[in-house]
């Protein structure tokens, strides 16, 4: 360890560290522009100069490049230092008057631009981008070119660089934000829509899926990550101080033996663009309720500001349309999605909170507000928030003069209404999550024509399925609001606990039994079994010697369908409860 | 009235017989040609239907008296819990003439009679037997599988038949024949034929039977069987046996049967069906114990029964050498060969 | 004294006897739904409930005919919807082959029906039974399926 | 009526034939006793009173019982011919007919034809000491004879009964076993196989042959009647030899599969004998003459 | 030397070698015998007896039926003489775990067809050269031309008839059945320890040889062989009542080939149609 003094403070530092690193570790702030811990120092910008006042040769040295020495005494804000920085900044300000960080630092050090040719380049020639590209990314896509005032940062021959990966490390690291990688990069640099915000904003390949995500850790989107596309970059790995990046990590199939499965796959929204009359997807100001939800969210794309996507200005008139796809026998779904009435009312309130002078209209079929305090809530929206509820359907939405004309019927007054709206919010139907049929078939549970999963009995066994050990919770079963989902989830959880709290499993006795005397061990039954419940069993005599191998049905896995029994030619498998003699008697009785 | 008397039949005696007997309300059963190569006993009303040339019928004569399946009784469970039982009526009393079985099959009825009429008299068998007259046609061309002479029979054997018919022309039946009356029943049959048969002229003798080599000696066989129960011969002998019942079902002397109920929920029949000692389940107890668990022990039983047990019990061999079992054997096995080997073993 | 069913067949009131094998989860529930929905259908059908159409052994069908059925129906879940994943697929394959076999042996294939009826299809069930009953009535009593010979074997 | 144990195989000539049409008499189940988990004793009475009065049989004979629709099965008559007016059989559930019979209720009608077969040589047994050795359901035929002898107690010498089963719950006729135990002129030894005893069990624990040897009945002027599982019989015979019993004085009864009961169907044929006609009762010396196919 | 004599010599030599080297304990083959309609099976346990082995056009039998006989199994490792068509039965037995490949030795014999006519199966044979055998003997033989067309001719001839004609035909044929079960016993694939007809609780198939019981028996047997029958024709050959059982089996085999592109016994790894399914199976005829 090396002892030295910085700003009269005794500190210890590892040998080989720079003064800058040692100071930063000690909590002493030394400004710099061209330094980054992941990039070898060059001492290019001279902002980090400090004064050696003792213990060595006195003078100004760049803190980012000067190694610690035993007994060194350093001042970081001495007059000489400040003067030096002021001069440096003055020169920089002259060259790059537009760079925000330079403006700020210049102001801090009281630097005035020197009277020379005013530059218009934000680049301060620190070369950090060149170093990161060469030393960290290893590509050397950017370099210095020219001499004197001709000197600039560019790609070889000013052409888009074939070696550029488009990683953006240069842009990321540039202290003044002077680099647009699109200038250099031959690869298309697409923006990635942020799914959580319904694509209303973008995100980087490395991102945290949504603010409440658990665990709240960033992840790499492999499909968009330069490293996974080209094999290069790895900038994040170089930069990450915690060394947390592991490109070799892959998605895993996790196999767990479980005693119960709760299916809670939730819902998706019906895609309203099938209804051309509403113009969703064509008119930017026609949004779905979930998009609206994100817009008014403080963590959303507009940080809670409600603006029209087309103009960025708050909408003064918003029309909410309920039952988009729901309760529509033809061209839609016959069922009521149950939650739309209530969230639309909530949205009307939120809207008024965001846009005080705005007017909300709601087109509805019926207001279904069965639930504790639900009806009162809707009444409040109508009375206190002055939302206009119109009973009827909207026939057409079309743009006109920067607005959307919503033409619909008010069936209560029997009139045609036309509203010039600045935003239209659609409340699409709830549909089961994609892939639900595959899942249901995998789990051998029933589903209805829409894909909602079937409970074992609508009244008596509402959270169980016909497959023992599989339970349902939430909107995978039917449209549900949050309290209903929580209630069902609680019920499912308690069913699971009830199931696994016993030492032994109680199940229906309807299972296959093999007659070991007559089993031929052809194992054709194995092929017929959808549950993998059939396997070989060794029969042993008293001495423990294997006398025969026969089929064995695992009574925990068998569901009692009987496909094996039909496949068995020697009729060596009986299904309890549907035994051959029982069925024989039943068939005999048909002849009475 | 003396039996063993010879009569001559004129060339159309057969046609006349069928017509006369049918007209008298009798049932005439005769060998008829079915599919190519297959002759079986069926009811006929005209002599034209009768097969002209045949070695033997595919199915043995026994089925006429001991059908492959027959109803013993019918029952019905009534609503009040009672059961109504109706014993199947005995076969109708109209007379049956079997016209043209082979001497071996007729002889086999002697074996059948023994078992169905000892101690208990099987009335169903008895009724069918009593009403039937057996008119056998002597064999002219025994088939290569025939071995009647080895078991005490002959292509011209008398035993069992009421009348034995010898063809004097080439055919079995069509031309001029000599009818030998063996029993009173046979006499009655002759009487019914009227002028189509007449006492044979003096000196007319039946033709001599065709040559049929004697292949083994039943006394030697019996002697070996007396000691040979535990011989390893049986295992070797039985290896190729597939355990089917073709030999037994086609055998004119095999008589094992099963009694089963066949019913819907409230009514049904109790039936008697042919069964076979070669079947693995034949002797299986409900407990799972099987006194004859291996195929060889069942093969042994079949041979022992025919050539040792039955003779000991009833005084005659339960085999007439018709050769059906050899013709029917799926594996090409031959009872005659087995017995020839047994004979050879006994004789060293 | 002991009559066979056909002794009574030729009356004007003749009703076909249809034996139906229904899977527990779809078709039986569908028939149940038809009842709950107060849909009526002919009483000619005699239902035997099984866990799955895949449990229908061809012997059941054979035995039903032996016992005097004029028509046999097997009904299960629609393809893909089997409670046991694939029982109905197994049934479809086996019973098609069985129908072909019976037809080959001269048994009228119209006497053997197969249908998909889901738990939600009470209306389909009642309509189906109406239709097949009408067809069975048209086909008339199934006399051709062999009974045990009344007379003894002629061999 | 059948004859007892022919010394010479029967032929058709030596007596009048009995007509046989295989029909069954109807009998009503008068009572059912659950002996063990799979054995029930049925008491049957003839539906036709006249038939009932004419019915006579001897201990050791059997009959063909039928449940209409299921078929016929053979069981020995388990009650004593000295007890008139009814007949009993004990049936272990094993196959189709026995399974159906177990489903029957009191009042149901079953079929019966019989009695068939020979019987225990009770005339030879008079004045002799009797040793009954039974195992499991094999007590049923012995029970007929035991009660027969007990009902004519003064005609016999000492009577000893050795009976065992796999476990206490497998013992049949439990009440009667207790009655025999209480009788002063009958020595009754009951046993269960090791492991089959219960805490309350007061009898012996051990296999029947071992217990028989311990009981050590005298071979003098004695006749043994035994019935049980084949393996038990085998070891009982060895024990009896040790105890000095001759083969002639040991009788047992065979249970071959039968269909006709009258020496025709061929199933019970063993050697030149028909178990249904020449048996089911055989002396041990007779059995030794037979092929071992029973 | 005639081809038959040279085949016999190779068979005898092969079998004698296997037996003397202890490779097998038993060789099952054919013993052609003068004056017989059928060359019966022979069970050879010593090199000397191997001289009895031979092969000619009377070797109808499918000897694979003996491979699972308990007595044969007791004797130890067994070699069996198989024709190309018999190998198909062996393949099914392997597929259904009845026998293990390591327990048997297959001596294939190239066959130019059996029977006088020859048999139908031989005129449509496409497997005269035995596949998958440990040893193959005999001279090369030609496959008959156009084998595939006539493969199911017996079934097709009946298919062309009307329903009533077929009913009439089969009633007459099946009424002949005497329930001797020779068809079952000779079938290499009827290896059930307890045949369904022998299960009495309940008695699905009536044992009486009346028309009802006979139809049930033959339907159930045909169904149990559907997708398994290799068309060896043994059942039809041995039927003492000459019932054309082959036509029924052909019908089912044709269905399997038409619907599922499946021919049984072509390899031991195949999966039988009735142990699996396809979601694409036809819904035709389903209401």
Overview of this structure, please?
Chain A is built from 15 helices and 27 strands. By secondary structure, chain A is α/β, with parallel strands linked by helices. Chain A has 5 domains: 2-109, Ubiquitin-like (UB roll); 128-183, no CATH class; 192-239, no CATH class; 257-504, FAD/NAD(P)-binding domain, CATH 3.50.50; 512-589, Alpha-Beta Plaits. In chain A, α2 (79-95) packs antiparallel against α3 and α9 (340-354) runs parallel beside α10. Chain C is an alpha/beta fold. In chain C, 62% of the residues are buried. Chain D folds into 2 domains: 25-116, Elongation Factor Tu (Ef-tu), domain 3 (Beta Barrel); 122-253, Nucleotide-binding domain of ferredoxin-NADP reductase (FNR) module (Rossmann fold). Helix content of chain D is 24%, strand content 30%. In chain D, β12 (222-227), α7 and β13 (250-253) form a beta-alpha-beta unit. In chain D, α6 (208-215) runs parallel beside α7. The longest helix of chain D is centred in the middle third of the chain and has 13 residues, at 139-151. Classes of the chains: A alpha/beta (592), B alpha+beta (348), C alpha/beta (155), D alpha/beta (294), E alpha/beta (287). Chains in contact: A-B, A-C, A-E, B-C, B-D, B-E, C-E, D-E. At the B-D interface, β4, β5, α2, β7 and β8 of B face β1, β5 and β14 of D. Chain C: Pfam families: FlpD (PF02662). Chain C: Residues 18-140 form the F420-non-reducing hydrogenase iron-sulfur subunit D domain.
Task: Give the SSE map.
The complex is a heteropentamer of chains A (592), B (348), C (155), D (294) and E (287).
Chain A lengths: L1 E5 L2 E5 L5 H7 L23 E6 L4 E4 L10 E3 L3 H17 L4 H10 L18 H10 L5 E3 L6 E3 L14 H5 L18 E2 L8 E2 L2 E2 L11 E2 L5 H5 L4 H5 L21 E3 L3 E3 L16 E3 H7 L21 E8 L15 H15 L4 E6 L9 H10 L4 E4 L2 E7 L2 E8 L4 E7 L1 E6 L1 E3 L3 H8 L26 E3 L9 H19 L11 E3 L9 H5 L5 E7 L5 E8 L9 H5 L5 E3 L4 H11 L2
Parallel strand pairs in A: 1-5, 12-23, 14-21, 15-16, 15-21, 16-17
Antiparallel strand pairs in A: 1-2, 3-4, 3-5, 6-7, 8-9, 10-11, 13-22, 18-19, 19-20, 24-27, 25-26
Chain B lengths: L5 E4 L3 H11 L3 E7 L5 E6 L24 E9 L5 E5 L8 E6 L1 H14 E2 L1 E3 H9 E6 L25 E5 L9 E5 L2 H9 L4 E3 L18 H10 L5 H6 L7 H5 L6 E7 L3 E8 L20 H20 L9 H5 L6 H12 L2
Parallel strand pairs in B: 2-6, 6-9, 9-10
Antiparallel strand pairs in B: 1-11, 1-12, 2-3, 4-5, 4-14, 7-8, 10-11, 13-14
Helix pairs in contact in B: 5-10
Chain C lengths: L17 E6 L3 H10 L8 E6 L7 H9 L4 E6 L10 H18 L7 E5 L5 H18 L16
Helix pairs in contact in C: 1-4
Protein name (chain B): 4Fe-4S ferredoxin-type domain-containing protein
Pfam families (chain B): Fer4_22
InterPro entries (chain B): 4Fe4S_Fe-S-bd (IPR017896), 4Fe4S_Fe_S_CS (IPR017900)
What structural class results from the helix and strand content of chain B?
alpha+beta
> What is the average of the pLDDT values of chain B?
90
Order of helices and strands of chain C: EHEHEHEH
Overall radius of gyration of chain B: 22 Å
What's the domain count of chain C?
1
Main beta-sheet strand count, sense and barrel state of chain B:
8 strands, mixed
Helix content of chain C: 25-40%
User: Gap between N and C termini of chain B, in Å?
Assistant: 50 Å
**Mean pLDDT across residues of chain C:** 84
Low-confidence stretches of chain B: none
The largest contact between protein chains, plus residue counts on each side, is: B-D, 56 and 50 residues
**Spatial strand arrangement across the major sheet of chain B:** 3-2-6-9-10-11-1-12
Number of domains of chain B: 2
């Amino acid at each position: 360890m090396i002892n030295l003094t910085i700003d009269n403070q005794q500190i210890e530092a590892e040998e080989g560290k720079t003064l800058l690193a040692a100071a930063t570790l000690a909590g002493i702030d030394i400004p710099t522009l061209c330094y980054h811990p992941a990039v070898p120092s060059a001492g290019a910008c001279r902002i980090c100069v400090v004064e050696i006042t003792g213990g060595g040769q006195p003078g100004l040295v760049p803190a980012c490049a000067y190694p610690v020495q035993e007994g060194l005494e350093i001042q970081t804000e001495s007059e000489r230092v400040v003067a030096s920085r002021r001069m440096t900044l003055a020169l920089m300000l002259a060259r790059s008057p537009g760079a925000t960080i330079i403006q700020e630092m210049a102001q801090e050090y009281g630097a005035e631009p020197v009277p020379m040719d005013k530059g218009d380049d934000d680049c301060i020639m620190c070369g950090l981008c060149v170093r990161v590209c060469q030393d960290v990314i290893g590509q050397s896509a950017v370099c210095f070119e020219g001499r004197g005032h001709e000197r600039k940062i560019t790609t070889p021959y000013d052409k888009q660089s074939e070696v550029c990966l488009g990683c953006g490390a240069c842009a990321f690291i540039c202290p003044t934000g002077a680099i647009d990688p699109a200038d250099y990069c031959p690869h298309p640099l697409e923006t990635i829509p942020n799914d959580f915000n319904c694509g209303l904003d973008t995100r980087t390949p490395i991102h945290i899926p949504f603010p409440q995500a658990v665990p709240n850790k960033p992840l790499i989107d492999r499909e968009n990550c330069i490293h996974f596309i080209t094999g290069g970059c790895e900038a994040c790995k170089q930069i990450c101080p915690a060394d947390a990046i592991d490109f070799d990590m892959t998605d895993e199939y996790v196999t767990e033996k479980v005693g119960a499965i709760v299916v809670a796959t939730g819902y998706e929204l019906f895609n309203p663009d099938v209804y051309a009359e509403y113009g969703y997807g064509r008119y930017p100001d026609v949004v779905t309720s979930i998009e609206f939800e994100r817009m008014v969210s403080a963590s959303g794309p507009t940080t809670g500001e409600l603006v029209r996507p087309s103009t960025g200005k708050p909408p003064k008139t918003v029309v909410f349309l309920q039952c988009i796809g729901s309760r529509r026998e033809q061209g839609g779904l016959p069922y009521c999605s149950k939650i739309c009435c209530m969230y639309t009312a909530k949205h009307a309130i939120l809207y008024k909170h965001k846009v005080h002078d705005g007017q909300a209209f709601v087109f509805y079929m019926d207001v279904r507000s069965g639930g504790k305090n639900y009806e009162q809530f809707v009444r409040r929206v109508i009375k206190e928030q002055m939302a206009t509820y119109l009973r009827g359907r909207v026939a057409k939405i079309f743009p006109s003069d920067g607005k959307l004309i919503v033409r619909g019927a008010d069936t209560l007054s029997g009139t045609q209404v036309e509203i010039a709206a600045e935003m239209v919010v659609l409340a699409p139907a709830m549909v089961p999550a994609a892939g639900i049929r595959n899942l249901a078939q995998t789990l051998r549970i029933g589903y209805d024509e829409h894909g909602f999963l079937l409970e074992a009995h609508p009244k008596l066994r509402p959270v169980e399925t016909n497959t023992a050990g599989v339970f349902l919770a939430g909107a995978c079963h039917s449209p549900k609001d949050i309290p209903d989902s929580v209630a069902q989830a609680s019920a499912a959880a308690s069913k699971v606990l009830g199931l696994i709290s016993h030492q032994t499993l109680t199940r229906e006795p309807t299972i296959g039994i093999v007659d070991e005397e007559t089993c031929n061990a052809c194992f054709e039954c194995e092929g017929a079994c959808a549950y993998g419940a059939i396997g070989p069993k060794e029969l042993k005599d008293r001495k423990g010697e294997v006398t025969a191998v026969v089929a064995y049905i695992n009574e925990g896995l068998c569901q009692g369908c009987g496909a094996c029994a039909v496949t068995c030619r020697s009729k060596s498998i009986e299904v309890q409860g549907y035994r051959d003699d029982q069925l024989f008697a039943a068939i005999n009785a048909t002849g009475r | 009235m003396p039996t063993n008397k010879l009569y001559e039949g004129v060339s159309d005696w057969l046609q006349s017989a069928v017509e006369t007997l049918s007209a008298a309300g009798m049932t005439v059963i005769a060998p008829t040609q079915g599919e190519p190569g297959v002759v079986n006993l069926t009811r006929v009303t005209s002599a034209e239907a009768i097969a002209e040339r045949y070695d033997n019928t595919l199915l043995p004569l026994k089925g006429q008296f001991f059908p492959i399946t027959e109803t013993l009784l019918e029952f019905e469970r009534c609503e009040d819990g009672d059961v109504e039982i109706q014993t199947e009526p005995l076969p109708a009393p109209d007379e049956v003439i079997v016209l043209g079985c082979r001497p071996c099959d007729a002889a086999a009825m002697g074996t059948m009679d023994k078992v169905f009429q000892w101690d208990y008299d099987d009335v169903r068998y008895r009724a069918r037997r009593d009403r039937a007259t057996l008119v056998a046609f002597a064999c002219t061309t025994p088939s290569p599988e025939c071995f009647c002479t080895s078991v005490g029979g002959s292509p011209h054997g008398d035993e069992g038949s009421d009348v034995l018919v010898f063809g004097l022309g080439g055919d079995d039946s069509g031309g001029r024949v000599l009818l030998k009356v063996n029993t009173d029943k046979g006499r009655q049959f002759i009487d019914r034929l009227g002028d189509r048969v007449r006492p044979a002229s003096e000196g007319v003798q039946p033709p001599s039977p065709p040559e049929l080599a004697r292949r083994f000696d039943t006394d030697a066989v019996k002697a070996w069987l007396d000691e040979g129960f535990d011989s390893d011969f049986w295992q070797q002998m039985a290896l190729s046996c597939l355990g089917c019942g073709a030999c037994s079902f086609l055998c004119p002397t095999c008589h094992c049967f099963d009694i089963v109920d066949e019913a819907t929920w409230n009514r049904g029949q109790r039936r008697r069906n042919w069964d076979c000692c070669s079947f693995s389940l034949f002797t299986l107890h409900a407990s799972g114990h099987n006194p004859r668990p291996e195929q060889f022990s069942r093969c042994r039983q079949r041979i022992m029964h025919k050539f040792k047990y039955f003779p000991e019990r009833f005084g005659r061999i339960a085999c007439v050498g018709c050769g059906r079992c050899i013709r029917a054997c799926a594996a090409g096995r031959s009872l005659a060969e087995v017995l020839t080997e047994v004979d050879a073993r006994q004789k060293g | 004294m002991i009559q066979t069913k056909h002794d009574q067949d030729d009356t004007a009131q003749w009703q076909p006897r249809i034996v139906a094998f229904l899977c527990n989860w779809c078709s039986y529930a569908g028939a149940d739904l038809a009842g709950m929905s107060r849909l009526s259908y002919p009483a000619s059908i005699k239902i035997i409930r099984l866990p799955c159409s895949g449990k229908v052994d061809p012997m059941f069908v054979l035995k039903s005919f032996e016992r005097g059925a004029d028509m046999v129906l097997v009904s299960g879940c629609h393809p893909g919807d089997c409670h046991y994943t694939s029982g109905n697929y197994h049934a479809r394959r086996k019973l098609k082959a069985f129908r072909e076999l019976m037809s080959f042996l001269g048994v009228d294939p119209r006497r053997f029906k197969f249908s998909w009826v889901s738990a939600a299809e009470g209306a389909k069930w009642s309509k189906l039974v109406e239709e097949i009953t009408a067809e069975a009535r048209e086909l008339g009593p199934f006399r051709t399926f062999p009974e045990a010979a009344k007379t003894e074997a002629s061999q | 009526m059948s004859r007892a144990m022919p010394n010479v195989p029967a032929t058709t000539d030596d007596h009048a034939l009995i007509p046989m049409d295989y029909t069954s008499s109807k009998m009503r189940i008068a009572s059912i006793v659950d002996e063990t988990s799979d054995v029930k004793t049925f008491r049957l009475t003839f539906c036709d009173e006249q038939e009932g009065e004419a019915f006579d049989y001897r201990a050791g004979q059997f009959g063909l019982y039928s449940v209409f629709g299921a078929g016929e099965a053979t069981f020995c008559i388990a009650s004593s011919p000295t007890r008139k007016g009814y007949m009993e059989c004990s049936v272990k559930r094993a196959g189709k007919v026995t399974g159906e019979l177990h489903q029957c209720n009191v009042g149901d009608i079953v079929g019966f034809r019989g009695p068939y077969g020979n019987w225990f040589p009770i005339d030879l047994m008079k004045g002799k000491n009797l040793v009954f050795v039974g195992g499991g359901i094999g007590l049923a035929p012995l029970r007929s004879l035991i009660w027969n002898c007990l009902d004519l107690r003064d005609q016999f010498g000492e009577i000893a009964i050795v009976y065992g089963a796999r476990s206490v719950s497998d013992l049949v006729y439990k009440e009667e076993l207790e009655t025999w135990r209480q009788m002063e002129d009958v020595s009754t030894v009951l046993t269960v196989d090791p492991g089959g005893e219960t805490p309350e069990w007061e009898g012996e624990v051990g296999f029947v042959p071992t217990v028989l040897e311990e009981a050590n009945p005298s071979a003098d002027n004695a006749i043994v009647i035994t019935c049980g599982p084949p393996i038990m019989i085998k070891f009982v015979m060895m024990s009896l030899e040790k105890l000095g019993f001759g083969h002639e004085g040991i009788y047992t009864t065979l249970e071959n599969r039968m269909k006709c009961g009258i020496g025709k169907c061929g199933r019970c044929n063993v050697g030149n004998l028909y178990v249904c006609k020449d048996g089911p009762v055989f002396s041990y010396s007779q059995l030794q003459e037979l092929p071992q196919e029973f | 030397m005639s081809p038959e004599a040279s085949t016999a010599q190779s068979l005898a030599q092969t079998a004698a070698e296997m037996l003397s080297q202890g490779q097998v304990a038993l060789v099952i083959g054919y013993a052609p015998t003068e004056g017989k309609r059928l060359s019966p099976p022979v069970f050879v346990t010593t090199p000397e007896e191997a001289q009895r082995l031979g092969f000619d056009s009377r070797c109808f039998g499918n000897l694979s039926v003996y491979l699972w006989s308990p007595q044969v199994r007791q004797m130890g490792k067994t070699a069996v003489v198989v024709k190309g068509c018999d190998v198909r039965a062996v393949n099914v037995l392997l597929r259904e775990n009845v026998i293990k490949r390591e327990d048997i030795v297959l001596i294939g014999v190239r066959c130019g067809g059996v029977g006088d006519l020859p048999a139908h199966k031989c005129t449509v044979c496409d497997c005269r050269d035995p596949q998958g055998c440990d040893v193959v003997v005999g001279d090369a033989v030609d496959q008959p031309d156009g084998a595939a067309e006539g493969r199911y001719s017996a079934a097709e001839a009946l298919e062309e008839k009307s329903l009533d004609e077929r009913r009439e035909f089969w009633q007459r044929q099946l009424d002949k059945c005497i329930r001797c079960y020779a068809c079952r016993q000779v079938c290499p694939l009827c290896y059930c320890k307890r045949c369904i007809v022998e299960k009495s609780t309940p008695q699905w198939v009536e044992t009486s040889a009346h028309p009802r019981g006979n139809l049930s028996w033959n339907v159930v047997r045909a169904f149990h062989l559907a997708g398994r029958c290799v068309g060896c024709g043994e059942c039809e050959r041995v039927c003492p009542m000459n019932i054309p059982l082959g036509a029924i089996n052909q019908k089912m085999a044709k269905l399997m080939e038409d619907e599922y592109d499946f021919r049984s016994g072509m390899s031991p790894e195949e999966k039988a149609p009735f142990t699996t399914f396809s979601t694409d199976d036809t819904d035709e005829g389903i209401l």
